[in-house]
Structure formats: C-alpha cells, structure tokens
Design a protein that fits this description.
CATH topology of the largest domain: Rossmann fold
Helix content: 25-40%
Shape: globular
CATH architecture of the largest domain: 3-Layer(aba) Sandwich
CATH class of the largest domain: Alpha Beta
Oligomer: single chain
Order of helices and strands: HEHEHEEEHEEHEEHEEEE
Number of strands: 13
Strand order of the largest sheet: 2-1-3-6-12-13
Strand content: 15-25%
Structural class: alpha/beta
Largest sheet: 6 strands, mixed
Number of domains: 2
Number of helices: 6
Distance between the termini: 28 Å
C-alpha cells in the first residue's frame, strides 16, 4: 500500500514537468518513481527536458530511463525540482537525508524555481522529531559530534555503511551523523545553529521557504499542501 501511495504522489508531480524544463531529480524510493515517470514521458511523449540529479544513484537511474543529464555549470537554476522527504509538517518544514544525499538535495532545492516534495501520508507529522542527518568532513566528525551534543542533541550516531564495517561515505566523500534532538520546536533556528559548527557541510532540516508544495499520496488520492 505504501509503495502505491508513494508512486501516486511522485507521478502526479512528474506530470507537472513541461517541455523544455530543467528538472532537479531527488534521491530515494519516492523520488525514484518520479524519475521513472519522467523517463516514460520522454520515451512516449517526446518530452524534451534536461535533469540535474542529486546523487550518483539518481544519475544512473535517469540515464537508464533515457533522461538527458546536465549540470549547474550549464544552467543557473532548475525550473522544477521533485524530491522526497523523511518527515514533513503541515507548515511544509522537512527533514531529509535518510538516503544520504542531503547536501546535493539542498543545493538543488535552493536553486529551484519550484520545489515539489513527494511522500506518502505516513511522512506527515505535527512536529519534526526524527534524528537530523548532518554531513560532516571526515577529519572533523568527532568535533562536530561533541558540538551537536553541546547544542542539545540527546545522542549522535555515526551512520554506518552496508554491513556496518565502517562509516557510510556520501557522494561528496564525507561522513553522516544522525543527531537526535527529540521534538524540534524551531527547525529554522536549529538548521542555522547546526551549520555554524566547524566541520559541518550541511544538515537535513529544510526550511518551509524552500518548499513550493507537498504532494501526499493518500488512500483517497493525492493531497496537496501549500501556503
């Protein structure tokens, strides 16, 4: 059921892409459905687009589905970005980074004319509360860990790679820390506070100011949240 709801949301967002658009392609299981749907439109409708993927995995999927790839060297902005979220509030605040691509995802979101978040209804919460992914330079991960505790994290875990033999390495060559702050009352303030820590590249809190709308897959259809 959850996969069907993800697919509904993602395909509804993919239908918003227009001929000639530069598209930001997110990372994760829900975003994958959007990439697949866009590939189908390219093949069947002759949709002419170029895409900036947010991870190596997404780049591979896009190429497999016949979507041409571009970069920010060629384009200043993307016309529309489609990506998932691990948690989203009715006020359009997000936590992202469960898939490890938060830095590139935030770069794309910050440089998108329109940013659509796609998710199933289970991701909608009253307040953000899951551990916040934080991308850190390997040299400074212990420094960042201690600093996160000082600013209020109840616990901080170094994310492990497959098989738990070592740390997960992001596409940027960095480590990820998952910092548990419990229920987050001020996401924007915490986002800024985390990013002031020396050694932190970026974190998974996304301000509502970045989000154009959220497409939620529900049993009654796709629900759209916007301001």
């Amino acid at each position: 059921m959850k996969e069907r709801l993800k697919q509904m949301a993602a395909e509804s967002a993919a239908a918003e892409v227009k001929d000639g658009d530069v598209v930001g392609l997110g990372t994760g299981s829900t975003a994958y459905y959007a990439v697949r749907a866009l590939g189908r439109r390219v093949r069947e409708e002759g949709l002419c687009i170029k895409a900036i993927p947010t991870s190596v995995d997404t780049r591979i999927h896009a190429l497999e589905f016949g979507i041409p790839i571009t970069t920010f060297e060629e384009f200043e902005q993307v016309d529309i970005a489609i990506d998932g979220a691990d948690q989203v509030t009715p006020g359009l605040e997000l936590i992202k980074g469960g898939g490890g691509a938060l830095f590139r995802e935030k770069v794309v979101a910050c440089n998108a004319k329109r940013f659509i978040v796609v998710a199933d209804e289970s991701k909608l919460v009253d307040k953000l509360s899951m551990p916040v992914p934080v991308e850190v330079l390997p040299f400074a991960w212990r420094v960042a860990e201690r600093a996160l505790i000082k600013i209020g994290a109840k616990s901080v875990a170094l994310r492990r790679g497959r098989g738990k033999v070592g740390p997960l390495i992001t596409d940027n060559g960095n480590y990820l820390l998952d910092a548990d702050f419990g229920e987050i009352s001020g996401p924007e303030e915490l986002e800024e506070e985390i990013n002031r820590i020396v050694g932190v590249l970026e974190n998974g809190l996304f301000s509502s100011a970045l989000v154009s709308e959220v497409y939620l897959g529900t049993e009654k259809g796709v629900r759209r949240l916007r301001f």
